[in-house]
Amino acid sequence: MSSEQTPTTEETTGPRPRRVTYAALLAALEGLALVVGGVWILVLGLTGHPDDRQQAVTGGITLVVLALLPLFAARGLLALRSWSRGPAVITQLMALPVAYNLLQADSMAIPGGIALAAVAVASLVLLVNPETTRALGIRGPGSTSNPEK
Question: Integer distance in angstroms from the first to the last C-alpha of the chain?
Fold first, then answer.
């Protein structure tokens, strides 16, 4: 471990703030939704009569694999690992265009787009909060490792 990395332990970070817990729960919720959607598409692709079976199977597997990013981020957030904020933020930034596309549809997808946008925005607000940043041990640019001078 280099001297630039800061270990996150209970004694250096204190108890986990509720904001971090809520952000982890929202990331886990998104990951679980991706797993459920991926398995659903995969099962329909294998047992149903899709237009293109290979595309359905590939789409289902892709969603399940994409679910790993928010699930790992949620686990890292719960453990107060500083690396976990990056994947969690990336997940939310990827969710916003998906939510926008769902909102543009003239179908039952509109409520899903509203829910996804609300979760993504709420997660981003929680993840960039200064309390979350401090709890994860993330220092801003130009910060020194010794805060007391």
Answer: 24
